[in-house]
């Protein structure tokens, strides 16, 4: 007999999510489970996370649908999220007893686009100096977030699948997963480069190499020795600095 599905309150869903998470943690198969925990009212606090969400919301394909998952990720329903080269996988607790499995395929960044990003970064070497000083310059923000040309994917570069019975083009479990990525980038922005199949360190090293003589000249000045010191550290550390927008 047809009818409306049983209504489940947010509190009940949260309780189910926490119960299922506790169960999965006891399972050896899910030893590395990574739930998304949102503290405060905003999903993302860093520029990277905010830019990821803003990029998705800026496309007409998504703007009216992606909001369905906002409350899901805020309430802790994304109980596992993994990001790898070209793929995002998640477990999202819904109204049922078992979480739904979401798989999102992200196209690798086109080599021409990546070369263009590197070239633009090299031309903004002064901005890289600001980056080294612990700030995220607007010039580099613009390079990374160029619509259709930056590092963030467009809808045509995203394909998704969810095990839920929802026939909508983008269900709330998929949209929750996409928002969860924004939260994930707060703590590890390097994952975005991994997701798009490009090497973050290559970006920094190519910029430094292009201006090697300038760096060496500045190294003669005692005040500039910090540049050389940072050069001995992992380049990825440059992305662990203050990215708060």
Keywords:
245 residues, alpha+beta
In short:
This protein has 245 residues and is an alpha+beta fold. The protein has 12 helices and 4 strands, in the order H-H-H-H-E-E-E-H-H-H-E-H-H-H-H-H. A 4-stranded antiparallel beta sheet has the order 1-2-3-4.
Describe this structure in words.
The chain has helices at residues 10-25, 47-57, 60-63, 70-74, 111-123, 125-132, 138-144, 172-187, 190-195, 200-210, 212-219, 225-231, and strands spanning 78-84, 87-92, 100-106, 158-162. The chain is of the alpha+beta class and 245 residues long. A four-stranded antiparallel beta sheet has the order 1-2-3-4. The N and C termini lie far apart (52 Å). Residues 222-236 and 241-245 have low confidence and may be disordered.
Average pLDDT over all residues:
80
Secondary-structure class: alpha+beta
- Model regions low in confidence, pLDDT < 50 over at least 5 residues: 222-236, 241-245
**SS element count, helices:** 12
Give the proportion of residues in helices: 40-55%
Strand residue percentage:
5-15%
What is the β-strand count?
4
Which strand order spans the largest sheet, edge to edge or round the barrel? 1-2-3-4
Order of helices and strands: HHHHEEEHHHEHHHHH
Q: Describe the biggest sheet?
A: 4 strands, antiparallel
What does the secondary structure layout of this molecule look like, with pairings?
Layout: H1 10-25, H2 47-57, H3 60-63, H4 70-74, E1 78-84, E2 87-92, E3 100-106, H5 111-123, H6 125-132, H7 138-144, E4 158-162, H8 172-187, H9 190-195, H10 200-210, H11 212-219, H12 225-231
Antiparallel strand pairs: 1-2, 2-3, 3-4
Helix pairs in contact: 2-8, 5-10, 11-12
């Amino acid at each position: 007999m047809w009818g409306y599905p049983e209504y489940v309150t947010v509190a009940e869903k949260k309780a189910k999510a926490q119960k299922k998470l506790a169960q999965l943690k006891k399972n050896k198969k899910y030893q590395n489970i990574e739930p998304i925990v949102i503290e405060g009212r905003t999903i993302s606090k860093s520029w990277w996370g905010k830019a990821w969400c803003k990029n998705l919301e800026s496309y007409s394909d998504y703007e009216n649908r992606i909001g369905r998952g906002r409350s899901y990720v805020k309430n802790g329903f994304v109980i596992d999220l993994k990001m790898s080269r070209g793929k995002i996988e998640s477990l999202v607790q819904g109204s049922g007893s078992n979480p739904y499995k979401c798989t999102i395929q992200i196209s690798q960044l086109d080599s021409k686009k990546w070369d263009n990003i590197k070239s633009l970064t090299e031309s903004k070497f002064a901005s890289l100096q600001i980056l080294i000083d612990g700030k995220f310059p607007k010039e580099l923000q613009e390079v990374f977030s160029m619509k259709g040309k930056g590092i963030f994917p467009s809808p045509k570069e995203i394909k998704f699948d969810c095990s839920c019975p929802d026939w909508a083009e983008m269900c709330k479990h998929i949209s929750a997963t996409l928002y969860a990525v924004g939260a994930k980038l707060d703590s590890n922005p390097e994952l975005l480069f991994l997701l798009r199949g490009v090497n973050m360190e290559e970006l920094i090293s190519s910029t430094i190499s292009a201006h090697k003589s300038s760096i060496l000249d500045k190294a003669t000045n005692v005040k500039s020795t910090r540049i050389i010191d940072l050069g001995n550290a992992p380049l990825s550390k440059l992305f662990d600095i203050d990215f708060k927008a």
